[in-house]
Structure formats: C-alpha cells, structure tokens
Amino acid sequence: MINKVMTKKSPLGIDLGPGTIRIVELVKKGTELKFNNIAVYNHSISIDESIKDLGESIKKCLKRSGFKNRDACLALRERDVIIKTLNFPVMSNKELSSVIEYEADKHLMFPKEMFVTDWSIIKRQKNNMKVLFLASNRNIIDKYVKVAEFANLRLKALDVEVFSLLRYISLSFEKENAAKPLNLILDLGLISTTILIAKGSQYIFSRNISFGTEKLVRQNLQKAVTDNVMEEQIVNNLIIEIERSIEYLNIEGIIKGFPIQLLVTGRGWEQKDLLDIVTKYLGLSPILIDPFQELSTQNINSSFIQEGMTMSIATSLALRNWVS
Q1: Number of domains composing the chain
Q2: What is the distance, to the nearest Å, from the Cα of residue 171 to the centroid of all Cα atoms in its chain?
Q3: How far apart are CA 233 and CA 200, in angstroms?
Q4: Which residues contact 137 (CB under 8 A, 6 or more apart)?
Q5: What residues have CB less than 8 Å from 251, skipping those under 6 apart?
Q6: 128-150 pLDDT, tens per residue?
Q7: Rounded CA separation 297/285 (Å)
C-alpha cells in the first residue's frame, strides 16, 4: 500500500503596505513548507482613504496572479494597536478576565466600548503572572473586515504585524532547547519603522516611529543628499529612538543590557548603504529576515526573489495555521 503525502494550502497572507499589496500562499507537503504563489501589486490607495477601492485592488491582484484560494489573513499595523504587558498575582482565568476589564479603563483614552480587546497569559510563575493586553479601535477593525468583503475574501484572522513577524522568527531562527537571545528587530518601511524587542520570539516591547526611507529616496533622486546628511538623519531619527527604548526597558527592569542579536526586514533596507550605517552605530551584525532564503521557492518566478525582505509580513500571515 502506498502512503499518500497530503498537500495542504495556507490561507493567503496579505500585507497591505503603503503603496504595495503583497500576497503569499504557502503549501505544506509532509513537513516541508513551500511558496505556492506570490503577488506584488503597486497601488496608491490607503486603507485610511478608500476601503472599496483597496478591496477592488486586492481583487484585481488575485485575478491577475491566478489565486483561486479566497481564505485570507490580514494584519493590523502596529500603530493601530495598543499593546501592554501587565503583571498580576496568580488567579484563575475567570478572575483575570474581570480584572482586565477594570484595567482596560486605565490604558484606553476613550470608553472601552469603542475598542476590541484581547489578552493572553505569556508567563505564569508561582506568585505572579504576566499578561499581554491588546486593544484596537472598532472602527479600524471594521475597515479591514470591509476591505476583505470588497475583495471577496473570507477573512480567517486579523493579526497584528509584530506578532505575525515573531511567528516567522519562531519558525526560522529558534532552535529547539537552545538559549533564546535578546533580539532587536527592525522592520524599516518607506513611511515608518517598527522597533521590536523579543526574547527569542517572545514579545517584550514594540514601538512604531515615523521614520521611513521615502524622504531619503526622494532626496537621492533629486541628488540633494550626501552620505553625511543621510548618516545624520539615521542617527537622529532611528538610532536615538532605539537607544531610548532600550534604556527605558532597562530602567523598568524589563530587560538587562543591550540586545545581542539584530534582525532586520522591510523595504526600507533597499536604500543604498543604510544597513551598513545602522549596524555600524549599533555594533551588531545584522541577520536578514528573508523568507525566500528559508522556504522553498521552487514554484515561484525568479523575478520575485529580490523582494524577499519585503515579504516577511505576508509570509508570516500565511504561516498562521502551522506556527502558533
């Protein structure tokens, strides 16, 4: 008797980045994960502007690239989510749920009825427990739900970008029973940058800052930027914010010392010399988060390979069924 190895498809991972829609579909055959289809579609529509037009753009992208699957996972931007780590004495989940209802009022600027909230226990010790609390405005969540409807998608999950990225790190950079390093993860985009601190793939802290490379790209095109100007902008807008974040975490006793491992991803690193400048100031050798270097691209057009560092969020979303 021949044992047939079943092939399973993932929901589509769809990253609605500024100016670009990125879509990933994975397949799993046995224990092997492969890219089954990929699409990159440039557009000029923001989810904050026209929900219907963005949904129509996704629909066009799916049709043009031959996607049949309509199950999908989307991700909220880090800046659209309130993320807090809370400490409580040990209690039952029922008691904790009531306590968090009360605590929510302290952390939300508006009535909690305006928010969708969630929480999970991330560490339980003998006398205390650490809880991750999340909240996002209902209006923002409704926008993503409606975008999916206009795109004729079945929305299976609405994730958060930083947690989606940590899922990929768990798969690709964590070895079983190995020590988990303190990671500094930089997702550098055209408009903004997310600073993420994690113990291995366990969330500690994140912050989104309004520093992206779009301005630098425009200046380069105008031949109005020098290496010194670029270096000054990076130091003032990125390095200082990283150091402030790490200093805060040390003062609060959340971490000890400086992260020992730097992981980088995002479209912003395409900017010439940027990675060298940042790593020089941080004193850490970068590790690239590039799904195309980790998962099989046998089925993918070679023209997409250079997009690897821009596909981490979409790939992480597509992994949701297989990596917790």
Answers
A1: 2
A2: 14
A3: 30
A4: 80, 114, 115, 116
A5: none
A6: 998 999 999 999 999 999 999 99
A7: 26
Q: Is 213 in the same domain as 117?
A: no
Provide the residue range defining the domain that includes 234. 9-78+140-319
The verdict on residue 3 lying in a domain is: no
In a domain, 132, yes or no: yes
Residues contacting 102, CB < 8 A, separation 6+: none
pLDDT classification of 226: cutoffs 50, 70, 90: low
- For residues 9 and 36, the answer to whether their CB atoms sit within 8 Å is yes
Which pLDDT does position 234 carry in this prediction?
59
Q: Are 181 and 260 in contact (CB under 8 A)?
A: yes
Whether the predicted pLDDT of 117 surpasses 70: yes
What's the predicted TM-score (pTM) here?
A: 0.88
Residues 285, 182, 193, 44: is their CA dihedral positive or negative?
A: positive
Confidence of residue 47 (pLDDT cuts 50, 70, 90): confident
CB 287 within 8 A of CB 262: yes
pLDDT tens, position by position, 278-307: 888 899 999 999 998 888 888 777 777 778
Rounded distance between C-alpha atoms, residue 314 and residue 227, angstroms: 32
Indicate if 221 and 245 belong to the same structural domain: yes
Backbone angles phi, psi at 254, to 5 degrees: -80, -35
251 in the same domain as 103? no
Same domain, residue pair 244 and 295: yes
